[in-house]
Amino acid sequence: MEYHEQVEDVLATAKFGDLIQFSYPIGYSHWGVYDEDGFVIHFAVAEEGKLMNKVRTSLQAMFPVCGDLLLGSTKIRRMPLGEVTVPEGAHVSISNNGHALRATATEDMRRRRDGLLGKELTYKLLSLNCEHFATFIRYGKAVCNQIPAKAKNVECVEATKTFQEIVDSKETQETVKSKERQAKAHWKETDSIPHYP
Fold first, then answer.
1. Where are the domains of the chain?
2. How many CB atoms lie within 10 A of CB 30?
3. What is the full DSSP assignment across 14-60?
4. CA atoms within 13 Å, Cβ hemisphere of 132
5. 81-106 core/surface letters (b: 16 or more CB in 10 A; e: else)
6. Helix 106-116 to helix 130-139 angle, to the nearest 10 degrees?
7. What is the pLDDT of residues 53-73, one digit of tens each?
8. Per CATH, which fold does 3-191 belong to?
9. Distance CA 97, CA 88 (A)
């Protein structure tokens, strides 16, 4: 099946929170999470200037599968599934059964997604990678089963902690902003009430 047909097949059946696996010809996989309406959330290239773009292009030419990873800077992005850059010969599929974990509630997945979307992170192959991200969104635990000589289905506590701290920090900021808005609305109300001597 051609790659574009695989994308269409995934789009026809994927549900929010499904793990999307981009299997590369060399045996490595890139991972993302389906986010409805044809979009996927994944570790992607961070914003960069022209010079860095030239460096990245050169690395991708020398190392087609992992040129981006060698630079280390990634950003969690939401983009159309069909626009995720993959090397020739890659396959894409829904892959929810490769980890011995149970999916968490949809609202928990959305909360983690909202907390991490748009964040820039340093890519670390062994301790903070795309599979860690995708499994954290779905399961609440960061797991990577493609690191050689590492036990399968074992939580990477470092990655889980990093992701959870970001999510918690964003929730705290949103709570503070909400309380500030409520206080401003309250003071606005009390200022508009006529005061009689």
1. 3-191
2. 26
3. --TT-EEEEE-TTS-EEEEEE-STTEEEEEEEPP--HHHHHHHHHHH
4. 22
5. beebebbeebebbebbebbeeebbee
6. 140
7. 455 455 555 544 444 454 557
8. endopeptidase fold (from Nostoc punctiforme) (3.90.1720)
9. 25
Whether 113 contacts 77, CB under 8 Å: no
Question: Model's pTM, two decimal places?
Answer: 0.79
The span from the CA of 76 to the CA of 48, in Å, is 14
Residue labelled with tokens 């994944």: 42
Helices 130-139, 157-192: inter-axial angle, 10-degree rounding: 60
Task: List the structure tokens of 185.
Answer: 């609305």
Residue 81 is given by DSSP the state: G
pLDDT in tens, 117-127: 999 998 888 89
